[in-house]
Write a structure and sequence with these properties.
The structure holds 2 protein chains of 2 kinds. Chain A is 38% helix and 10% strand. Chain A is an alpha/beta fold. In chain A, the strands form 2 sheets. A 3-stranded parallel β-sheet of chain A has the order 3-4-5. Chain A has a two-stranded parallel ribbon with strand order 1-2. In chain A, α3 (77-89) links the parallel β3 and β4. In chain A, α1 runs antiparallel to α5 (136-151). The longest helix of chain A is centred in the C-terminal third of the chain and has 16 residues, at 136-151. Chain B has helices spanning 3-13, 38-47, 104-115, 159-169, 180-183, and strands spanning 19-22, 30-33, 53-61, 65-73, 80-88, 93-95, 118-120, 148-149, 152-153. In chain B, the strands form 3 sheets. In chain B, strands 1-2-5-4-3 form a 5-stranded mixed β-sheet, covered by helices on one side. In chain B, β3 (53-61) and β4 form a beta hairpin. Classes of the chains: A alpha/beta, B alpha/beta.
């Protein structure tokens, strides 16, 4: 703080991108949504031992207040419509974390008749987290990686970012 | 009481109906009845023999026929018995048990959903697990999954084939010494193959 003392209460030199990304990455609210056993690990991650709250990540019970959609577990074709609807209801900018083998590629159930072979066939995915199920530490790191991704976003070049996202 | 005794009791009560006692290589014997006689037989089993609890109702694809299996239990004597019925696969018609055992409702919906057994006089025979607009009955042996559902592709590349391709291009002893001719064998899309890097990198 010492080098900023001269400007205390008057001025704070910073970059616009950093200023916009700093509060966003420190308040990543995730949707209270799980489809299978990965949800148990998600609960544990939100619990006091791993404690996502210290990174500003708290769960929201409505997609309209959520920034991150965690696909925790296998998604069936019947559920895929609901997942897509939840994703559509989330405000931009939004992020999707495919948690566990089932969400990544169908996992154990990929040869079954009812399970979607990867949630990326339904909605765009920002981060893939392998594991069956991933430990809370792994989920924690994946969410921190989403924070890093947000940190590197350039809002002053938003136009380019949109086209990148469309190309995915 | 044994399954054989139940079978002979039923046969004495209903001499005009064909009731068979069958036995597999393992497990308990079962009573085989025709779908047309099912309600008559189960009514006697429930009201006169005290089998008042439908523990399970499931269906089987035997290839040419579809079978429906009823597991009945008496809550007072703990006696259990299995009743089976066979129906043709092209026109699988079986009477619904919902009037006799209300618990049969969702069981029959499941058997209809996954194996396509048509239960006559069921009050609400629609799919229970698969989406309402799903085509086909997935647990039938001749079931072919659709190419896509609501725009989601249902097929998946052959995993064994993919692994074999990777094995050819990523043999451990060749990492770091791959020549350009071997790089050409790399499957499309796998551009970050570590084998294609030179050792100096």
């Amino acid at each position: 703080m010492s080098e900023l003392e001269w400007a205390e209460g008057i001025i704070l030199p910073t970059k616009i991108d950093w200023l916009l990304n700093w509060p966003r990455r420190n308040s990543l609210w995730y949707l209270l949504f799980a489809t299978a056993c990965c949800g148990i690990e998600l609960m544990q991650t939100g619990g006091p031992r791993t404690d996502l709250d210290r990174f500003g990540m708290v769960f929201r019970a409505t997609p309209r207040q959520a920034d991150v959609l965690l696909i925790a577990g296998a998604v069936t074709y019947k559920m895929a419509d609901a997942v897509r609807r939840l994703y559509d209801q989330m405000p931009e900018p939004k992020y999707v974390l495919a948690m566990g083998s089932c969400a990544n590629c169908g996992g154990l159930f990929q040869k079954g008749y009812s399970v979607v072979k990867g949630i990326d066939k339904v909605i765009p995915v920002d981060m893939y987290l392998p594991g069956c199920a991933p430990r809370p530490e792994a989920l924690n790191e994946a969410l921190l990686n989403i924070q890093k991704k947000i940190e590197n976003e350039r809002w002053t070049l938003r136009k380019n970012m949109d086209s990148e996202k469309l190309a995915q | 009481m044994t399954a054989g005794e139940v079978c002979s009791t039923l046969q004495n009560r209903l001499p005009e109906i064909k009731i068979e006692l069958q036995r597999g290589q393992v497990g308990d014997p079962w009573i085989l009845v025709q779908p047309a006689d099912l309600l008559t037989v189960l009514q006697i089993l429930k009201q006169d023999l005290g089998l008042n609890y439908l523990a399970c109702l499931s269906a089987i694809d035997y290839g040419t026929n579809l079978g429906v299996v009823y597991q009945l239990r008496s809550l007072s004597t703990k006696f259990e018995i299995m009743v089976k019925t066979l129906t043709s696969k092209n026109n699988p018609l079986v009477p619904s048990l919902t009037n006799l055992y209300p618990a049969a409702g969702w069981f029959e919906r499941e058997a209809y959903d996954l194996l396509g057994v048509n239960f006559q006089d069921h009050p609400d025979l629609r799919r229970i697990m698969m989406p309402e607009d799903w085509v086909g009955h997935p647990l039938r042996k001749d079931y072919q999954p659709p190419a896509e559902y609501h725009g989601i592709p249902c097929d998946r590349p052959d995993t064994h084939q993919l692994l074999q391709q990777l094995h050819i291009t990523q043999q451990p002893d060749k990492v770091g010494t791959t020549t350009t001719s071997e790089v050409g064998k790399t499957p499309a899309g796998n551009t970050d193959n570590p084998g294609s890097k030179s050792p100096l990198e």
